[in-house]
Amino acid sequence: MNKPRRPRTSEAQHVALDKLRERNIPSAQQEVQAPRPSTPYDGPGSAYKLAFTDTEFLLREELRPVRMQLELLKPELVQQEQGVQATVVIQGSARIPNPDDARARLSLAQRGGDAIAIARAEQAMAMSRYYEEARRLAAIVTERSRHLRTPLHVVTGGGPGIMEAGNRGAHEVGGPSIGLNIVLPHEQAPNPYITPELCFQFHYFALRKMHFVMRSVAVVCFPGGFGTLDELFETLTLMQTGKSRRRPVLLVGREFWERLINLQHLVDTGMISPGDLHLIQYAETAEEVWQRLHEHYGFEAAPPAEPDSGAHEEDV
Fold it and tell me: What are the counts of helices (DSSP H) followed by strands (DSSP E) for the chain?
């Protein structure tokens, strides 16, 4: 797939740029970095700072539109520079442990003899299989897409659990991956497997979800809670309403998802159309997910990855 086209610079713009260079007008970055004498107005409370270096000013309530634009632009420009054009989104619970941790927790609970603790540890052990599937999926996507004209990059929410598994799988086969962290009251630090140049932090959920959608050629949801459901239904709504191009949405663990969400009930009560059920597919293993993606795209040519410029218009 070709890279997104940048606007062409006109001849008149070239002439204007050349004149600016001849006059040696410094850039904003040069002005900020250049040494300058101190002034009586450098202290606290002064309005003398350049507006774009004044954090207190940028954090004012009235500047929310500017901050939202920055949260859209920074990941967008960095991913362009890093050559990220097509992504596979891996979503799921931050609470699903890796099997080693789950095994250690179960052993500790069994030694303690608390029936409730043992039951919870056994449940965590059972759910930990999804960590391994997410890890293997990320490795498969990263390795098997390397030959494509547009390699696929794994993107996660950047936290622990399933998110960690996704970044870890890509990291273990020597590939880059993306983490879209969100500032939360009890949020952990980004997991250690994200490519540093592609580790982002968001304040606004809407902008973060927008970046999940914009480059994705597939969305893979492992079991999760409110956050995973929010991200899943956001994507489904955008596709259902034509705000975003359609792409495979795969739910891993059919038993979990069908117990959680009765989509047929929505059809039976007229809340969605029968055709809307085709927006999702189910899978059980990483290999099955990859097979579905291969069937959908063929991978003889690169999958479509044009950014969804109209996505989330209602949220911005």
Answer: 12, 7
